[in-house]
Amino acid sequence: MEFKDIHIGMKCGSRKGSGTVTWIDGSTRKIYMADTCNNNNFEVEFEDIIEDPQVHNKQDTFY
């Protein structure tokens, strides 16, 4: 996945958890997401985005 492929409203998984992209900072390559479970906001580095078509919960590392 390329940085340009990320867009607001996209569901993503990361090492910090799953969420919906709410903001993208191109200068720092950080992605801000709202948690899918409790709607808390958190930020992740682009490199921490998991390239998996399934969105994972924090608790689920493997199926």
Would you kindly provide a written description of the structure presented here, covering whatever features stand out?
With 63 residues, the protein is an all-beta fold. It is 0% helix and 41% strand. It is built from no helices and five strands. It has strands at 11-14, 17-25, 30-35, 41-45, 49-50. A five-stranded antiparallel sheet has the order 4-3-2-1-5, with no helix packed on it.
In short:
The chain has 63 residues and is mostly beta strands.
Can you give keywords for this protein?
63 residues; mainly beta; 5-stranded antiparallel β-sheet; 41% strand; globular
Task: Report the span from N to C terminus.
Answer: 22 Å
User: SSE string, helix = H, strand = E?
Assistant: EEEEE
Could you give the order of strands across the largest sheet? 4-3-2-1-5
Strands, total number: 5
- Approximate strand percentage: 35-45%
Overall pLDDT confidence: 82
What integer value in Å does the Rg equal? 11 Å
Task: Please tell me what the overall shape is.
Answer: globular
